[in-house]
Design brief:
Layout (H helix, E strand, L loop, with lengths): L2 E7 L4 H10 L6 E7 L20 E10 L4 H12 L7 E7 L17
Helix pairs in contact: 1-2
Bound molecules: adenosine-5'-triphosphate (ATP) and magnesium ion.
Length: 113
């Protein structure tokens, strides 16, 4: 099974997560700067000490496509290296993919990861 693991984490944790995933042998990743809020609606994280109400805080979204059985380890590594123990550490989710194509070679399925 091919799975897409998506995580939204704190930007400062990106390097640690990236290194951990590289060490685990992932074949690629996509990183996007995003903004979001969770249960606190971005209001209690005191971003840069601002006294203004901030509803959307800067986060980083990481997307990793993995083949058979690798998602468990990828999810665990992201959680381990994204965690600071403070609010806003993020979320990780995974979904099965019904198709994957490696454009250059025409490979499909797990071979395309
Ligand atoms: N239910 C959700 N749906 C979509 N994105 C979410 C959801 N919850 C969190 N996110 C994304 O994850 C980011 C980090 O969420 P956050 O860690 O604050 O979640 P939380 O549930 O409030 O946990 P905590 O209490 O530890 O802060 C948000 O800024 C948002 O981008
Ligand atoms: Mg939160």
């Amino acid at each position: 099974m091919i799975e897409l693991v998506t995580a939204v984490i704190k930007p400062h944790q990106l390097d640690a997560v990236k290194e951990a995933l590289l060490g685990a042998g992932v074949e690629g990743m996509t990183v996007t700067e995003v903004r979001g809020f969770g249960r606190q609606r971005g209001k209690t994280e005191n971003f840069r000490g601002s006294e203004y109400r901030i509803d959307l805080l800067p986060k980083v979204k990481i997307e990793v496509i993995v083949g058979d059985g690798a998602a468990d380890q990828v999810v665990a590594l992201i959680a381990e290296h994204a965690r600071t123990g403070k609010i806003g550490d993020g979320k990780v989710w995974r979904v099965p993919l019904t198709g994957l194509l490696r454009v250059r070679t025409g490979e499909t399925g797990p071979a395309a990861v």
